[in-house]
Structures are given as structure tokens and as C-alpha cells.
Amino acid sequence: MKKAAWMAGCALALSILGAAGAQAETTLRIMWYSDGNEGEVMNDLLRRFEEKNKDVKVVLDQVPFKAINETLPVQLASGQGPDLARITDMGGLAPYLMDVRAHVKDAAYWEQNYGPFLQWMRVPGNTTAIPGYMTQLTVTGPFVNKTLFEQAGVAMPGANATWEDWAKAAKAVADKVQAPFPVAFDRSGHRFFGLAVSQGAQMAETGGELKPVDDGFKRAAKLVVDWHKAGVMSTELWGAVSGTAYRGANEEFKNAQVVFYESGSWQTAQFDKTIGDAFDWIAVPTPCGPANCSGMPGGAALVALKTSSHPAEVGRLLDYLASEEVANEFYARTLFVPGHIGLAKKGIAYKSASPQAASALKVFGDAVGKLDPVAYRIQGDPSSRIVFNAAISRLGQVVVGETTLDDAYQRISADVAQQIAERKKKQ
Amino acid sequence: MTDTMRSHGAPARGPSAAAAAVTTGSANILMRLTDPPMRAVQRLIGAARMPYVFLLPNLVFFGLFVFLPIGINIVFSVTGGTGLFPAERPYVGSEHYARLLDCGSYLEAASCREDLFWRGVGNTLTFTVFQMVAMVLFSLVTALVLNRPIRGRGFFRAVYFFPVLLSPVVVALIWKWILQRDGLLNAVLTTAGGEKILFFVDPGWAMFWSVFVSVWAHMGFYTLILLAGLQAIPRDVYEAAEMDGTRPWRVFHRITLPLLWPNLLVVLVLVLIRSVQVFDEVFVLTGGGPGTATMMVVQYIYTTAFANQVQNFGLAGAASVLLGAVLFVLTLIQLFLTRRRAS
Questions:
Q1: Are B287 and A236 inside 8 Å of each other by CB?
Q2: Is A387 found in the same domain as A251?
Q3: Which chain A positions have a beta carbon within 8 Å of B301's beta carbon?
Q4: Residue finishing a domain among A336, A355, A374
Q5: Which residue positions does the secretion signal occupy (chain A) (predicted)?
Q6: Is residue A282 situated within a structural domain?
Q7: What is the CATH number of the domain that holds A219?
Q8: B92–chain A nearest CA distance, Å
Q9: For the whole prediction, is pTM greater than 0.90?
């Protein structure tokens, strides 16, 4: 009897040990930044994934956006890094992204729903890789303080209004209500290109050489400089910091100091939460220029990184998060424009959005369909961030009077050429 | 009763004596343990070389964290591309140095190929000159005042030293909050009937506040050095001057200043070196703006290496080597002046 009990105990211990071995956990780390509540929502979704996949534990490392832009590339270049990351510079980081096509259940689903955006994440020449999915599609566009317009008694420009129409109206409002920022643009090359594309900027490559400064670019740059001279834009945003530093005007907009704020769809959730009923704000379609009425697309993608040693688990996680049901919940709760074509067609039910936010999301959703093909191409260009940074750095100098527009054009071209040449140098 | 207690011939009392006994005992055990191997090493290399054995641990750390990075930096400065490991980087020789030094006129940043580097150099020079003058002046005056028998002297010493304990980022954020459009200072100005001043939009104001904040944050440290120097001056020299009826200015000029000179020299050189290296406070306070009016050399290096999409470690490395060369020369000057004074 004693012997039988002893043997049963051994068998039980062995089975427990075996089960523990079979359930050995793989830990995946995600480097993640948040503009609003998306970190919180993602955490919820990950916990549900872990419940269904007991062998995988996912850690969401929340970092500032600056760490994604500056620290992550250095980590990846040194062969270090997390398993996945939420990034915006898809073209720039494309060489470090892992292709999980072999580890997803249905590659056709991915192509069908994320296809156009997957191209942004692929190295030039590759047309098949599945490195990740869009957690958010963004589109640049303006927010307007409707209450200030009403207080000033100035009529708001209508559909198909030009940039000049909006600048004139915003200045009139600001003068009447003593608002310090008639028009504010985020200090970002991406936002500047929202204006530049409508003015006809192409950022074309001729003879293997990228031409960042063309007639459309010059028209946009001149508008920005003239607006600064005329007091339509304040030097506090583009002039107050140097180099490639980003400076948003979201705080100023929330404080009702900005009449017309050129930013983008990703601000909707935070404005909905922070402005509340302090004043009425709306999103309006991107103003028109001589070329079109297009803004710039963009967005953030959750991508697999080559530094991961768990491609199968990464593929499984991405399959789960990119599935229609989970992606739908993510976009709906975060108030993001979907980067999933099927969901974009069906429409997202933003249940938690106020009427103002829902209306803004409708405007941005409609704007996606009006984006010019040039805007998509520029966004997908691996050198786009080089051009954006050079543009914002040099135009920032022009608006404070450090240099002239002509000199800035030469410097932008030289900066871009030098950086591209440096990137091409290989051992 | 322990051996230690017996050796002192009297029983120790209280917990502190027990702790001391434990410490001494541990030290004895450690010495007994290390003695044989150290003797063996001494027999092997000779007594004359033993100091190097004791210096070795520090030298290893110094080599690993100072000399090795300097070497890597130099390698980066003569190689190109975006690779992080030296083996991935093609040799480009002096290309980066030539690019940095390619100027029509060194007095005109716009004529330089790498104009932002020279704007950084110009701004750093301006900052250094103003900061040195202000820092030495205010530290000296403060030290002189705190050296007098005033009421609450200890309190004031602590007050002036307190900002030194703060992180430079915290200092910059506090002042940013005070100086921004809707900050404390503008609130005071408008309450007093004045106009708001956009301090970070005007190049002159931005540089002024960069210097001011830096002086405010570090003055306490230099004041302390000068105060120590003032307290080391023998009182009888002053008493003799007083008996001779020497005027206060003459006392300061002929007694205090010459006897304080060694400390003053240390302060001057430390301020100079720190000014050339300035980055964190100014970067957080002004972001280098307006335009590039407060962009310093170190910010240029940081931006070139990390903030651009193409992280140009080579060009940043070359700029670092040039900056290092300037600091090396400044250190040599300090050594020369200190030794001349001592001799």
C-alpha cells in the first residue's frame, strides 16, 4: 500500500513537472507610445490574448514618443530591441522589421485589409513582407474654434475654401477676440507637407536624385513665411525652438488661444476629453491649394522586429490584434481612424465619442478618401523624414529672420542630399 | 568579551562600541586574508611596482568608461555611414573634419558648409563669455557677503546652495514655467500694468535667460569654493590693515583678491569648461531657439547623432573631437596657470 502511494506521488509530481514544461512561458515585449488612451486599451486586449494563449506573456513597455524616434533606431542598429514596437517612421525603420508572413494564419486577409499600408513598412523592392499592422491611420487636417468665430461674428469659410481664405478669416477672428494664435501649425515637417501637397509639391525623384524643393514646396514655404510676417502665425511655435524639434499647439488650442489649428485626426480623442464643453470645436476639411485639397496621410503601426527570437509567437499576437473584431474594438475605444480597409468601409461605431468628436472623426474619415496619390507616395518614401526634418529646421530659421527663403531652399536640398549620401555609405 | 576588547584593556560599553569592534574584527580578517596573495605579488613584481597594483582597479574603470569611449569616438569621426559597429563603417579619413571646417569666413556661420555647427560655436562663445563674467561676479559678491558676520548666515548659505542640488532639467522646467507666455513673470508684469514679453521668441532675451538660469543654478557651488578661500585668509592680515587705517576697497584689492586668486582661478576654469559643455539646461529651457539663437555646440552634436532620421555618428563624432580638443587646451591653460601661481 505504502509502495503504491509512493509511486502515485511520483507520477503526480512528474506530470506536474511535465505540464509546467509544456506551459513554459514566452515573454514578448512591446515598446509602445501613447497620444491618448491607446496604451490602456492595448493592455486590456493583451490580457485577453494571454488568457487564450497561456504560453505567452506580453509586456507593454510604455515610453515617450521621443524614445521611439531616437532610442529605438539606435537599439535596432546595435542588434538590440524589443519583439514589437509601435512606430511612425515605417520607411526609415523598414530594414529592421521582421516579415511574419510565414507565421500568420491568413496572409490574404492581411493583404486585403492592410495592403496599401504594408507597402510603407517594406524595404524598397519588396512587395510581399507582412511586418505589422496599422494601429491608427492618421490624416492631417484643421481644427477650428467655432466659439471664437461666433464671438467675433465672422463667417466661417465654406466647402472648398482655400488656405488663404482660412488664414484671412482666422486673422479677422483673432483680431476681434484678441486670440494670440490666428493660425497654428504643429512644428512638424509632416504637417508642413499637408500644406505643400495641396500647393503642388511632388518630392519627386529624378535621375536617382530626390528633389525636395519644387514649385509646390516653394509656394507653401512662402505662404508660411508670409503668414509669420503678417502675424497670422506666431513665431512662438515654429520659431521658438531650433532644429528638428517638434512643437505642437494642442495646449494652446485647448486653452482657446488658437482660431485655426492645422494638426490631425490623432488629436480628436484628447480634445474630446480635455476641452469638454469649454467651447465648441470642429474639424473641417483640409483647405484647397492650386493642386488639390489633400492633406497628408500617416499613422502608427505595430510592427514585429528582427531582434525578436520568437517569430511564431509574434505572428500569433499580431494575428490576434489585427483581426477584424479586435482591431474594431481598438479603433472604437481609442477614437482612431481605422487603418483597416474593411473596417473603414463598414465604419466604426465610436460609442464613447461626444457628438463633436464623432463629427470630427467623420470629417477625417472622409478626408482619407480625398488624399492625393502624391501624399501617399511621399508618406511611403524611405527618405520622407529626412525631408520633413530638413524643411522644418530651415524654415524655422527663416521665420525668425536668421536666413532667407532662397538660402533655406539651398540648405534643405544640401541637408537632404548629404544625409541620403551618408545612409548609402556601407563598408 | 571579544579579542578586540581585551587588547584595549578595558571593556567597551554600548552598541556603538560593539559595532566598532565588529568593524575592526572584519577589517583584521580581511587583512589576514589578503596579506599572503599581496606578499606573493610583491615578491613577483618588486615593491617599487606595487603602487600600480593598487591603481589598477581604478585604471580599469577609467580606461573602460573614459579612454575606450574616446577611442571609439575618434574611430567614428573618421568613418562614415549609419552603422553602429566600427566594423560596419567605411573609412572616410578627414572627410567629416573637412566638412565641419569648410567655411568662407569663420566669423560668418552662413558662409560655412556646416552652418549649424558654427552657429553653435558662436552661441557657445557668447554664452561662455557672459556666463563666466556673471558667475564669477555674483559668486564672489555672494561669498564676500556670506563671509561677514551677518544674521542667519547659515540659512543664507543653504539658500544659495540649494539650487545646486536640483537636476538641470528640473531647474529648466521651473524657469520655463516662470518665463513662458502665460507664466508667472508675465502674470506679474500684466498685473503691474505692463505688457507681456515673449522671452523665448526674442534672441536677446532667450540668451539672457539661458545665462541667468545657469548662473542661478550653479552659483552656490562656486560661492562655496570662494567662501572656503576667504575663510582660509589669516585674520591677522586684515587686523594689520585695519590698524594701518587701510580703506575697504584697498583691503579687497590688495589683500583679499590676491590671497583668493588660487580659488578664483579654480572657479574661472571650472566655469569655463562647464560653459563650453552646456546642453541640458538650455536645451530644456529654450530648445535652442528662437531659430538657432541658443543652440549650443553640444546640442548640434546631439541632434546630428540622434535626432535626425539618418543618425550621422561620424559628423557628430568629429564635432565631439573638436570640442574635446578645445576643452583639452583649456585644461592645459588651467594647469599652467595653477603651477605658475604655485611656483
A1: no
A2: yes
A3: none
A4: A355
A5: 1-24
A6: yes
A7: 3.40.190.10
A8: 10
A9: no
